[in-house]
């Protein structure tokens, strides 16, 4: 719940005037609608309360029943996702983040969330506070964050606004993450004009915890004091949970309310204070303050424990004088948490936070009423039942209509025979390496600190996944974020199966065993039946793939309303169900890298290849053909291929492993060649068009290199698995050769690959 969404209150000054003089006056239907509630929802609130709510109460319901907090248009489908697995310790929705067992008494807490709408307005602070919010979800459970990833989507790279967004977002992520001191170990960046106005900024964080010391986001024990800790509360990001539940239009994109302001140094202090507090027995429960601020934390913690709270808003430390009740309740000021403390141990909390120069103020206590009562200067300004406000409780749950869009069948009519094969594929190959979606993202990641700490194992050892050492064990943790949104747009069900499978493939290629996923589901307007059809298809595809790989869904985030309204037409972004996956590398000495090791090693392709260029970067960008189905994919064959690769790594039969994904086989081979300045000499399949062989993105394929000494054992092993393998050729000293045609040298390819993105952005 971190996607900052500011209420319409921010736009309408008369609301503030109304509140200054009428704390308890009944709200009107017009005010409720302006706040984001529907007319029928306002009537439902009346029924719950047995009266008409006042303005403060209406504002509380408007944020808690917003799409972003309640998932009212998605929860019925989210419930169908698989949530059980062999390593699960905390299931989806039970706590601030998912938790899986990694052995040795340790668990991994991990989650991904969006900060899309704030980043569309103010990319620096929008992205920065997204990083801060996702890390708080991790350490609020008592886990120390050890690694971060991010998945970023932007519009046409030639547009001035896109360049502004890219620069702002990457600097925001870098400045906050670097100052906070957690390495960024991987991620993805994708460009398409569908994201021109509405970028996607998805942040992932993972932490390690002693499974005996998990902190729950649950309030218990009537009489126990309630503390707000961390930063003071200000008017930045007032109220959110409605803005991200609305369309972004040409007008609103330039007239959005203010975004929260992050302070990474304050967050670092909060992390250390929380870790110290976690070692005491003073904590009953704790929750981060994200969307909806104090409102969300008090209501969700109370509902989880079947208790209530009395909260005294005038005790909350504030940055501005004379803040009104709704401003305090709905502020999304950063670096704050709510803590329920064991009665009698208040001083422990105060002393620890005083040591770290942070606020720790007692603002109320737990009750047995099941109601949240908010007071201001001795006046009761809000009285609401906690359960009625929360996801899984009384918050609305809607079943939306969905309709297959006409384009879906049109895309299926694509025929590769309609595409002329270029004569000069060497020129095509160079052009592919320079495409923004293929070229190195070094311009982005060089702004991030990947070396801070001592855990990152892949900074100088490139791998398909980020890998970090788990201290005190011989294990490592592999993690990745993946989604090809072009595939999902072409076929939501198949495209999302591919996203899960690619994440598993990256974990597998790094030497890990896929364990569980978190997701960030970025879609258009749920009231649009065609957009909702994409969402439903994605859920079905995710379920199928997660069941196959035994990677349950631990939680995540739904972000609807990612679109632009231009000239009266609603244009959604590509549907983007980003998959964050973790896996365990049982022996850190078996971490596999993707780089070719030496001249003369044999190059094999594992898996099937087909004459397929559907939805490839080559087809979409080089040929400009957008209408095509998802690429070839077979879930069962994908699974079997990955099992074979696991065995090859375990038996030390390969010395480099890299999956075939965006850009196809040619790009994979170049990426394997660049780290050591080596090259390749391969032979294509005469039965397949050379452009499809080189640039097609058919799934379920991995490239490996094998020493001559390993060859016999490798072949025997692969024959036993029944998975297809093809000898492509061998590693060269630096020359790139295909079917005896010279494709240049790796040094030239690397120059193109390394510098293309920066050249685009700095024009």
Structure notes:
With 763 residues, the chain is α+β, with helices and mostly antiparallel strands. The chain folds into three domains: 1-64 and 216-397, Phosphoribosyl-aminoimidazole Synthetase, Chain A, domain 2; 98-214 and 449-591, 2-Layer Sandwich (60s Ribosomal Protein L30, Chain: A), CATH 3.30.1330.10; 404-448 and 594-763, Phosphoribosyl-aminoimidazole Synthetase, Chain A, domain 2 (Alpha-Beta Complex). It is built from 25 helices and 27 strands. It has a seven-stranded mixed sheet. A seven-stranded mixed sheet has the order 22-24-21-25-23-26-27. A six-stranded mixed sheet has the order 1-2-3-6-4-5. Strand 16 (513-522), helix 19 and strand 17 form a beta-alpha-beta unit. The protein starts with 12 loop residues before the first helix and ends with a helix. Mean pLDDT is 91; it is low at 1-21, 239-245 and 252-258.
């Amino acid at each position: 719940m971190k996607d900052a969404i500011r209420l319409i209150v921010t736009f309408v000054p008369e609301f503030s005037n109304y509140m200054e003089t009428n704390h308890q006056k009944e709200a009107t239907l017009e005010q409720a609608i302006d706040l984001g509630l529907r007319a029928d929802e306002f009537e439902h609130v009346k029924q719950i309360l047995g009266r008409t709510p006042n303005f403060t109460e209406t504002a509380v319901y408007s944020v808690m029943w917003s799409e972003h907090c309640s998932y009212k248009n998605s929860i019925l489908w989210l419930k169908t996702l698989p949530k059980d697995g062999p390593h699960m310790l905390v299931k989806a929705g039970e706590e601030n983040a998912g938790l899986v067992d990694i052995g040795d008494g340790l668990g991994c807490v991990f989650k991904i969330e969006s900060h899309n709408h704030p980043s569309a307005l103010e990319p620096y602070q929008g992205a920065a506070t997204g990083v801060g919010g996702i890390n708080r979800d991790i350490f609020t459970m008592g886990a120390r964050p050890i690694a971060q990833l991010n998945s970023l989507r932007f519009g046409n790279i030639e547009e001035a606004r896109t360049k502004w967004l890219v620069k702002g977002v990457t600097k925001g992520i870098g400045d906050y993450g670097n100052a906070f001191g957690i390495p960024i170990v991987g991620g993805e960046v994708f460009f398409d004009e569908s994201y021109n106005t509405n970028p996607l900024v998805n942040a992932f964080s993972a932490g390690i915890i002693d499974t005996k010391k998990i902190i729950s986001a649950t309030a218990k024990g009537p009489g126990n004091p309630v503390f707000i800790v961390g930063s003071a509360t200000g008017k930045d990001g007032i109220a959110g949970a409605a803005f991200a539940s609305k369309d972004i239009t040409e007008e609103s994109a330039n007239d959005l309310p203010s975004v929260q302001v992050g302070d990474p140094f304050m967050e670092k202090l909060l992390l250390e204070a929380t870790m110290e507090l976690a070692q005491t027995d003073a904590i009953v429960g704790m929750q981060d303050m994200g969307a909806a601020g104090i409102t969300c934390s008090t209501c969700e913690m109370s509902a989880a424990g079947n208790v209530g709270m009395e909260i005294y808003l005038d005790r909350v430390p504030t940055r501005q004088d004379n803040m009104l009740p709704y401003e305090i309740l709905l502020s999304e000021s950063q670096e704050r948490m709510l803590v329920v403390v064991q009665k009698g141990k208040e001083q422990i909390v105060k002393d620890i936070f005083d040591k770290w120069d942070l606020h720790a103020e007692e603002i109320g206590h737990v009750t047995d009423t099941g109601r949240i009562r908010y007071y201001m200067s001795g006046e009761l300004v809000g009285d609401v039942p906690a359960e009625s406000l929360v996801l899984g409780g009384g918050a609305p749950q809607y079943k939306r209509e969905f309709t297959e869009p006409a384009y879906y069948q049109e895309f299926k009519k694509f025929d590769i025979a309609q595409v002329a094969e270029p004569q000069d594929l060497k020129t095509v190959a160079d052009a592919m390496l320079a495409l923004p979606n293929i070229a190195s993202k070094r311009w982005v990641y060089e702004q991030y600190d990947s070396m801070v700490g001592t855990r990152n194992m892949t900074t100088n050892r490139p791998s398909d996944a980020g890998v970090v050492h788990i201290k005190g064990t011989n294990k490592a943790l592999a993690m990745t974020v993946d989604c090809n949104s072009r595939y999902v747009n072409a076929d939501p069900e198949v495209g999302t199966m591919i996203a899960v499978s690619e994440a598993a493939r990256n974990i597998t290629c790094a030497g890990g065993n896929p364990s569980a996923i978190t997701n960030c589901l970025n879609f258009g307007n749920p009231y649009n039946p065609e957009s909702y059809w994409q969402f439903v298809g994605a859920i079905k595809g995710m379920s199928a793939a997660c069941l196959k790989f035994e990677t349950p869904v631990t939680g995540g985030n739904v972000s609807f309303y990612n679109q632009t309204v231009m000239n009266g037409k609603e244009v959604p972004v590509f549907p983007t169900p980003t998959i964050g996956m973790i896996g365990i590398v049982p022996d850190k000495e078996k971490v596999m890298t993707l780089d070719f090791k030496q001249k003369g090693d044999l190059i094999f392709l594992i898996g099937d290849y087909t004459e397929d260029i559907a939805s490839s970067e080559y087809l979409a960008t080089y040929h400009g053909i957008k209408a095509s189905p998802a690429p070839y994919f077979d879930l069962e064959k994908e699974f079997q291929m990955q099992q074979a690769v696991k065995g090859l790594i375990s038996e030390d039969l390969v010395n480099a492993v890299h999956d075939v994904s965006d850009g196809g086989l040619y790009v994979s081979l170049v990426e394997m060649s660049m780290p050591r300045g080596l090259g390749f000499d391969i032979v294509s399949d005469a039965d397949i068009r050379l452009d499809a062989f080189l640039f097609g993105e058919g799934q379920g394929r991995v490239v490996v290199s094998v020493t001559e000494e390993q060859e016999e054992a490798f072949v025997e092993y692969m024959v036993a698995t029944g998975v297809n393998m093809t000898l492509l050729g061998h590693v060269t000293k630096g020359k790139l050769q295909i079917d005896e045609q010279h494709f240049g040298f790796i040094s030239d390819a690397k120059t193109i690959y390394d510098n293309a993105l920066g050249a685009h952005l700095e024009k």
